[in-house]
Specification:
Elements lengths: L8 H5 L9 E7 L6 H12 L6 E7 L6 H7 L3 E4 L6 H11 L4 E4 L11 H7 L5 E5 L12 H15 L11 E4 H4 L12 H11 L4 E5 L15 H16 L2 H25 L4 H28 L2
Parallel strand pairs: 1-2, 1-4, 2-3, 5-7
Antiparallel strand pairs: 4-6, 5-6
Helix pairs in contact: 6-9, 8-9, 10-11
Length: 303
């Protein structure tokens, strides 16, 4: 069974035990010349005292500024996309390059403090993924975006059958071996982190949340309004792959219920209408598609 919980205050106070662990930190960057160097310095400041092997991989997504040069000046591993390919594409490139099984991802814009990495790495010893929960920091969302965001979180929690605290947090530590099988499913854009969350929760992986702080970003946000629509499409796609009956059974029940009610009314008129027949046929078709999707899902995910 999945383990998706929030960490308590006592957990937060415990000294992180990272002995004998190794970490690859992947930082995607696009036009972050003013923040990428300080982000790298922040990671080093908090990982050096641990005394563990680690590497920092910066993936420049064809930036139009000096992002790549600023990262190269620090001496970390720097790779790049020839053309702007997206947040997810950059993360996938960096994860594939990682030499250690424990991988952390974080943004280059200064929003995620690296001081949480040691604790998250220690927690990941007994987990498949640890997600930084931005909590109260995410409540400062504009009023116009709040209904959409609440719906998105509620819908994702329904499909995953778990409470999802932070659907698309960009600060995570996970086991590379657990993520690699899902790489072909992960998108090229900002929906990458959303997909990871649903992959883990829908496939029985061990995942926990731990509170982190979320700072003010340096520069402008790269997220567009259309990304919300992309999130919804993505959630439907992933849920259909990992938990299709969760979607198709309720939808079929809606049509079956409409057909049943219409049939009761038709009986009072001594006439079976086309609407009732169509509703029953639609329910049967939807359930059939759900069973087929479930079979394909099981074949796709079998060892």
């Amino acid at each position: 069974m999945n383990n998706v919980t929030e960490m308590t205050a006592s957990d937060e106070l415990a000294a992180p035990n990272t002995a004998d662990m190794e970490l690859s930190v992947v930082i995607p960057a696009y036009n972050e010349e003013n923040a990428v160097r300080s982000t790298i310095d922040d990671v080093r400041e908090h990982l050096d005292p641990l005394g563990i092997p680690y590497e920092i991989i910066v993936v420049d997504d064809a930036s139009q500024d000096a992002t790549r040069a600023r990262a190269q000046e620090t001496g970390v591993i720097v790779t790049y996309n020839d053309v702007n390919s997206g947040y997810g594409a950059s993360l996938k490139r960096g994860i594939k390059m990682a030499q250690y099984d424990y991988v952390a991802i974080m943004d280059a814009d200064g929003t995620y403090p690296a001081r949480f990495l040691p604790e998250m790495l220690a927690l990941c010893r007994d987990q498949d993924m640890v997600v930084g929960d931005r909590g109260a920091a995410m409540k400062n969302v504009p009023l116009l975006r709040r209904p959409a965001k609440k719906f998105l979180f509620a819908f994702a929690s329904f499909l995953a059958e778990r409470k999802i605290n932070d659907l698309n947090s960009g600060m995570r530590v996970f086991r590379k071996t657990e993520l690699i099988p899902f790489l072909p499913l992960l998108p090229q854009n900002f929906s990458f982190t959303t997909t990871i969350t649903l992959c883990m929760t829908s496939n029985g992986k061990r995942m926990i949340y731990t509170p982190i702080e979320y700072g003010k970003r340096v520069g402008k946000s790269k997220i567009r309004p259309i990304d919300f629509l992309n999130f919804i499409i993505l959630i439907l796609r992933i849920s259909t792959l990992f938990n299709p009956l969760r979607v198709f059974i309720p939808l079929g029940l809606v049509f079956f219920g409409l057909g049943f009610l219409k049939t009761l009314y038709d009986l009072t008129q001594w006439n079976l209408s086309e609407t009732a027949v169509f509703s029953f046929l639609a329910a049967i078709m939807i359930w059939s598609l759900g069973l087929i999707a479930d079979m394909i899902s099981r074949l796709h995910l079998r060892p």
